[in-house]
Design goal:
By secondary structure, this protein is mainly α. It has helices at residues 6-23, 28-41, 48-57, 62-70, 73-76, 78-94, 112-124, 127-134, 140-155, 162-176, 180-193, 197-223. The chain starts with 5 loop residues before the first helix and ends with a helix.
Length: 224
């Protein structure tokens, strides 16, 4: 196939292999998984197969790849995740890898709220209790959803640790844009769970070619 955009592709390659390679995430597996989370968030399906191959080459197994995508659901919604999963599954099958992961659930219908609230408080502190108490009556169910679904159904799952899950959350929120308040909260949450400012900036740098400068600079302000 003739390449009609050679000059543009050269600019991309020079940028990716230059500034981004030098200043982005240096852990190849983490870089591939964070890139997958970002691409899922912005629904850039054509780029996902290459990142699946990159993740596998870097040592990521099926469960790590799938858990990365599952974890984006509370921030971008089920339909977008399912679209990305269909691409990932097809690429894994093409590579001769069984796409089915081992179930990583650690909660039940009866425990998901309590376990989720426990994780919330662990990440954000006792502020969570006052936030729940001060919520308007008509929105209290949203606070319950946050605890049970966002934190209970996802943060309690296995394979990815709390630091990685919180890093994915931050990257996804920054990737979709317009969520600066949440980005600030999760920048602080990343520090609370043991991630560093330097790691956040590296992850953001890795995502820069996909999300552009406006969202990257907004996210950098949130980190600062």
């Amino acid at each position: 196939m003739k390449n009609y955009d050679g000059s543009f592709m050269l600019i991309q390659e020079r940028f990716l292999n230059g500034e981004i390679e030098k200043n982005g995430l240096q852990d190849k597996k983490k870089k591939a998984l964070i890139s997958l989370a970002c691409l899922t968030a912005i629904q850039t399906m054509g780029e996902i197969p290459a990142k699946v191959n990159e993740a596998v080459s870097a040592g990521a197994d099926v469960t790590e790849i799938k858990e990365t995508l599952y974890h984006t659901a509370p921030y971008i919604g089920f339909p977008r995740v399912k679209e990305a999963l269909s691409v990932v599954n097809a690429e894994l099958e093409k590579m001769g890898i069984d796409p089915e992961e081992t179930d990583q659930s650690t909660v039940t219908a009866d425990t998901r709220f309590d376990k989720g609230l426990e994780v919330q408080v662990r990440i954000f502190g006792d502020f969570i209790y006052s936030m729940r108490e001060n919520a308007a009556q008509e929105t209290k169910h949203i606070q319950d959803c946050l605890s049970a679904h966002c934190f209970g159904d996802y943060y309690t799952r296995g394979t990815l640790d709390l630091k990685m899950r919180e890093l994915i959350t931050f990257v996804v929120i920054c990737s979709i844009g317009g969520c600066e308040s949440q980005a600030k909260s999760h920048a602080a949450a990343n520090i609370n769970v043991g991630n560093t400012k330097e790691l956040l900036i590296q992850a953001l740098t890795t995502c820069l070619p996909y999300i552009g400068y406006p969202r990257t600079l907004n996210a950098l302000n949130c980190i600062n």
